[in-house]
Amino acid sequence: MAQPQAARREIGAQAIDELRSAARGGVLCPGDEGYDAARSVFNSMIDRRPAAIVRCAGVADVRRALDFGVTHDLPVSIRCGGHGVPGFAVCEGGVMIDLSSMAGIRVDPQGRTARAEGGANWGQFDDETQAFGLATTGGLVRSTGIAGLTLAGGHGFLMRKFGLACDNLLSADVVTADGRFLKASASENPDLFWALRGGGGNFGIVTSFEYRLHPVGPILGGLLVYPFQEAHGVLKFYDGYSTQAPDELGVIAVLGTLPDGTKAVILPACYAGALDEGERVLRPLRSCAAPLADQIQPMPYTAVQSIIEQSNPRGFRNYWKTLYLRELSDEAIGILTEGYSRVPAPHSHVVVYTLGGAPARVPDDETAVASRDARHALIVIGMWQDPAEDEKQIRWVRELFEAMQPFSAGGFYPNYDADPSAERLAAAFGSEKYERLRAIKRKYDPGNIFRLNQNIRPAEG
Q: Nearest 5 degrees, angle CA 76-CA 77-CA 81?
């Protein structure tokens, strides 16, 4: 507690009071009611204490908060959904610009577009768009913010059919490091628009997103659950089946632990097409082994979107590592299954999901997103509750992650990594894209004000 209070004294009580009077959405400081709730995020390992949390009610508050942080030379963090495992949403002793109250969503059902404020999450977005039978690719956990997911690319059940979330982004309103309010689109500030689609939160604070929507639902979806002793055969079948499946199918393979403590292979699936065709497509997957449970059925898209979050509850300690896979060979499957047999916490799990489809057909230079040609993505997810077990739990994640390096395609999805190094991040984008991103960073944020993210430092010169 002492450090943030000291930071507040350094900037002066009068300055804080002036910020309070100016910010329409309110300001929280250490000791204020609601401060601790406002600084808490999905990963309970994150325990940082901002000097001030500005609860933004609109763009004016965003600009005031940013100006306050820059003027007083304080670190600035941006909170939208607060779901990112590294906890970049919360800074220590600085200004946390909280957009979570800015969650307005307006759907144009005739034009099949939606504009959503930067603090909205995917649950809110899907509720509004599904009222008109529409959707776009969004996160697999409803509390995930639209901002963080879209700016990193945006994976989800619908991506093989409709592309990544950022592939459906039509425009964005952005507050830049110098306080300007810009529109980024294919025709306005196109360099910024390119960088926002995959380059993360490095280039400004996005206060609203405009998306293209698609007719979706009802879908055929749910969970298939197989015994853990069948893991090798199920994953081997999954590898070939998922890469050859039609674009309408989004499917994930999970090595996880059921509520009764039984380890299992869990396959969440979503077929966003004609239901009778979905029954035909899913039949081989449903019969690749004798299931413990087959919960595949017609359901609203919003229902399938709520499934994954049940295994990702808020308030756990989290440490994740991720990479793209060039293959899911017998040897790779053996390492995964043996590694999961030694999992030290029941909520920890291993996820393999398949790319391809529409994202792979987008020209590589159209967005900042890298590794569009990857076959699968792997996430090793550590989740536990006791802080005394941090070292053991993190070690398990890292050891399994390192054991899978021989099968790496060389890249990774930045949002799913707890601590990506600058070198690894640069390698993931590739030298040409990374240097282009650094040049755009220098243009819009030369002082690296927006550095609490998977940071791309501005180019020199």
A: 160
Provide the CB-side half-sphere exposure for 380 (13 A, CA): 26
Least confidently predicted of 163-167, 184-188, 306-310: 306-310
CATH topology of domain 2-98: 3.30.43
Does the structure show a pLDDT above 70 at 390? yes
- Cβ distance 383 to 332 under 8 Å? no
Q: Is 400 exposed, middle or buried (0-12, 13-18, 19+ CB in 10 A)?
A: buried
What's the confidence (pLDDT) of residue 1? 28
| pTM reported for the whole predicted model | 0.95
* First-to-last C-alpha distance (Å) of the chain: 40
Q: Is-contact 330 239, C-beta < 8 A?
A: no
219-416 under CATH 3.30.420.40, yes or no? no
Q: Which two tokens stand for residue 305?
A: 């979107």
H or E element, residue 98: strand 95-98
Domain extents for the chain? 2-98, 105-215, 219-416
Question: 252-271 pLDDT, tens per residue?
Answer: 999 999 999 999 999 999 99
Fold of 105-215: 3.30.465
Question: Which distant-in-sequence residues (6+ apart) come within 8 Å of 275 by Cβ?
Answer: 218, 220, 298
